[in-house]
Amino acid sequence: MSEHDGSYKHLFSHAEMVADLLRGFVREEWVEKIDYATLEKVSGSYVSDDLRDREDDIIWRVRCRGDWLYIYLLIEFQSRVDPWMALRIMVYTGLLYQDLIKSGAVKAPGRLPAVFPLVIYNGEGQWTPARDVGELIEPVPGGLAAYRPSQRYALLDEGQTTEEELAGCPDNTVAELIRMESRPTPEVLRQVLSRLTLRLEAPRHDSMRRALAVWINRVILRRLAPKESLPAVTDLQEINTMLAERAVQWSEKWKQEGRQEGRQEGRQEGEVAVLERLLTRRFGPLSDEIRGLLQRATLEQLEHWADNVLDAASLEEVFKES
Fold first, then answer.
1. pLDDT tens by residue, 253-281
2. Nearest to residue 87, comparing CAs of 150, 168, 39, 162?
3. Is 211 exposed, middle or buried (0-12, 13-18, 19+ CB in 10 A)?
4. What average pLDDT score do residues 57-79 get?
5. Of 39, 138, 244, 259, which is least packed with CB atoms within 10 Å of its CB?
């Protein structure tokens, strides 16, 4: 499990985070009937070794419609597109049901509780895999289609969530989380931190504030300033203060680095163009392979090859190491 996924797990181990996730991003009728005060993280006694080994899964239960109708949330944290996700969800759900029966949470004769599988995707590119396991199975003739399994999972694709959708979820910590993930600039981060500090100022949110601070330190600040040495701040307000002090400094540094990179790229492009002309005049038209080699070369390699052009008897000698 990566540090990013570990930080996510810690965040969604808080009931208020799961409640915001459901209220803001699961637009289904049953969500309105949940008694959020009953949200309860499933203990390890309910979970077999097969599920317990999956450290990036979190399972909750909650009352719905006033009865102890169990709804389990299998939250999959996914940073890469997995084409077999629908199959994985079906397997995990089956394991969960087995554990509920084994532990006595469900007694025979009786019905199994509903399971709500949710994939949170925070990778690059759009999530494209099948959302139902039935879509992964080859079409079968005649009555065999009746035996094809079917289970669907819900998806929160952070990269496809628009600002309009986020604006429709006011006072929602998950919406703020997505803003920080998808728009990690000092300005956006400071605005989000100001809102979160006010929203989570009550003592009952102490653990949630610490979890957010840890996640911001380990994920967002490292993405925002990967080359900076930053103190391990564990308070949202302190992170905001640090950003206020360093934002101008970082901005100037990034501008300077951008100018230097631009000059370096310009010089390198010029070296490639000159070397291509010299090689063509001496040895004739260049192959796509040689042109590709020049495009991938470092500035030092280009300069070395340019020195070799004058004395080389063949194209191969131009590219010799010494």
1. 545 544 445 455 556 777 788 788 778 87
2. 150
3. buried
4. 72
5. 138
